[in-house]
Amino acid sequence: MADIWLMRHAAYQGHQTGHHAHPGAPLSDEGREQARHAARSVPDGIVGIVTSTMPRARETAEILANHTSLPLVAALPIFAEWQAPSIVYGRGPGTYPERYTAWQARRREEPELRCGDGESLADLHARAMDGLTLLNATARQGSLLLISHALYLGVLTRLGNSAAVAFEDAARDLWQFTETRVLTTLTAGN
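That's the Histidine phosphatase family protein sequence above. Prediction below.
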């Protein structure tokens, strides 16, 4: 089977370390430069790019496609970042509403629990499983590059763990902007 490569999108407008990004945040000027630079080091053998539909990932993918002549095979919401509840957009630890911190305290024991309009850990885990199935089917035609988001990529690489453990481990895994790794879990359920 062909390789599946993972890349975190480039830097986006309004980025603050440890804060939840707004889903519609576009790339910053720095991010566009990072994406152009990353195009020079795309792994050999990739035949196409797939990406999240969120602007920062989609824009990164479009820049890479333009600079490498690789086709942008698909932009799909299945590869989007974990949907944090809108009450934490632009906020970081120490400024979270009580409702969110209460959810954080319960999410490990209740991974199906949602906070407001956010996505549950169980839903993210299931979406990543479906994403892996889709990637595996698409990679039969050659190696792929998935451009997505730190938490989603982290969960995708930990699908053998429970939803809560995969999420918590992913949250501690610091993907740098445009960092690229090969996916070593190649089948759903591993």
